[in-house]
Amino acid sequence: MSKRKQFTPEQKVAIVRRHLVEKVPVSDLCDEFGMHANQYYNWQKQLFENAAPAFARRPNSANEKRRQHAAEKKLQQIEKKLQERNEVVAGWLRRQKPHKLPASEGAENQIDSCYTLFAPVCLLYAL
């Protein structure tokens, strides 16, 4: 009974590389290492199926810091814009008098009054 030969991952990569890069025929590799062609093709398939992580971008501290800094800067801009809107609304509300519409006014006057009351608030969303 013959014992199966065990290959390390490094040996498997080296064998597949010899065929792909150095153009050594698969039959020659199989004879040299005492294996079947199916075994070689299984290794080649595994190599290609699992090769994506080799090309994956590895996070490094500089990229992470840059991304975090950009997120913080954007948050500060949003907070500043919100603060400006709050100040505009607060100033506008201080200047306004309570608006009471008499029941006798027509619908057109009520619409005009509502427009003058809420127009500055609507403009804030355009900032």
Write the SSE topology.
Elements: H1 9-20, H2 26-33, H3 37-49, H4 52-55, H5 61-95, H6 107-124
Report what the structure shows.
It is a single chain. By secondary structure, this protein is mainly alpha-helical. It is 71% helix and 0% strand. It is built from 6 helices and no strands. The protein has helices spanning 9-20, 26-33, 37-49, 52-55, 61-95, 107-124. It is rod-shaped and about 100 Å long. The N and C termini lie far apart (83 Å). The model has no long low-confidence stretch (mean pLDDT 80).
Strand content: under 5%
Number of strands: 0
**Gap from first CA to last CA:** 83 Å
Helix content: over 70%
Q: What's the rounded overall pLDDT mean?
A: 80
The major β-sheet equals: none
Q: SS-based structural class?
A: mainly alpha
Q: How many domains is the backbone divided into?
A: 2
**Could you give the order of the helices and strands?**
HHHHHH
The low-confidence parts are: none
What is the C-alpha radius of gyration, as a whole number of Å?
37 Å
Shape: rod-shaped
Provide a count of the helices: 6
Can you tag this structure with a few keywords?
2 domains; single chain; 71% helix; mainly alpha; rod-shaped; 127 residues
